[in-house]
Write a structure and sequence with these properties.
The protein is of the alpha/beta class and about 250 residues long. It contains 7 helices and 13 strands. It has a single domain, classed as 3-Layer(aba) Sandwich (Rossmann fold), CATH 3.40.50.150. The radius of gyration is 17 Å and the shape is globular. The termini are far apart. The structure holds S-adenosylmethionine.
Length: about 250
């Protein structure tokens, strides 16, 4: 299970039980695997290294960070991508991070998953305290999270419903649903169009998947789409920049 890219195993858009508990099993004791989606939350080859390769480098980060830079994410999961971003930005300037999550994990599960990454130990307790205080088990509303140089908001609910209602914009997107074959709800063309609609001029996306239908949906939504070397055993991943009036806008320095 290294996030295989296969054709969807059921029609995109088919409803998944929204109140289903995440239902985890644990690989090697620390890698959470969703029973509902039959997929791991991050690469079995190293979640933190994957985040840095796919989502940070894939978006030209941390080089593009500046005061007010906005990141958005589909799939908060364990918060590992958030914490890797916190660690990648020591300032100056303050970042904004918005993540969309339908099935928030209980704090003890997040804590267990993060023990695999000693590097995040300095910032994980802050996330866990704030997450627990916000109330595990909620499935609607928002969870605000604050770190020294970054403010985050986790928007709970199905991204297909919450993203169209979001009034924010992102300079960089982390597209991190479970694999398109297992979690087609996170990759349909209309959701990719919403990602584009919520991307600032010059904004970018990165994702670990190179599935053809996802790449086509992102291109149709208005992104340049580039295949890049993937992480671990994945040969390819995908990055892109929003096209404006038919021309790619270079990422802001
Ligand atoms: C691969 S995991 C994300 C890993 C995460 N970025 C991390 O750093 O741990 C995919 C996430 O997408 C969430 N998800 C699946 N379907 C969703 C939907 N329709 N709307 C919002 N979130 C969804 C899952 O609950 C899961 O947390």
């Amino acid at each position: 299970m290294t996030r295989p890219d296969q054709p969807p195993d059921r029609p995109p858009g088919q409803a998944r039980e929204q109140t289903a508990p995440p239902g985890l099993e644990w690989r090697d004791g620390v890698i959470p695997v969703s029973r509902v989606f039959d997929d791991p939350y991050f690469s079995l080859a190293g979640g933190l290294d994957e985040t840095r390769h796919v989502f940070l480098s894939g978006n030209g980060l941390p080089n593009r960070f500046r005061d007010g830079f906005r990141i958005a994410e589909l799939g908060f999961g364990t918060g590992l991508n958030l914490l890797a971003t916190v660690l990648a930005h020591s300032g100056p300037g303050h970042l904004h991070y918005t993540s969309f999550e339908a099935f928030p994990l209980p704090a003890p599960d997040i804590a267990r998953a993060l023990t695999a990454f000693p590097e995040v130990a300095q910032v994980a307790p802050s996330l866990l305290d704030q997450w627990a205080a916000a109330g595990s088990g909620r499935t609607a509303g928002t969870i605000p999270l604050r770190f020294a140089n970054l403010t985050a908001t986790v928007i709970l609910g199905d991204a297909r419903a919450t993203l169209p209602m979001w009034d924010g914009m992102a300079d960089a997107w982390f597209l991190d649903g479970f694999s398109p074959a297992k979690n087609p709800e996170m990759w349909p063309p209309d959701l990719m169009a919403q990602v584009a609609r919520h991307t600032a001029p010059g904004g970018s996306f990165a994702t670990y998947t190179a599935a053809g239908h996802v790449r086509r949906a992102l291109a149709e939504a208005g992104f340049t789409v580039t295949r890049q070397p993937g992480f671990g055993r994945k040969r390819h991943m995908t990055t892109g920049t929003l096209l404006v009036a038919g021309h790619p806008v270079p990422p802001t320095p």
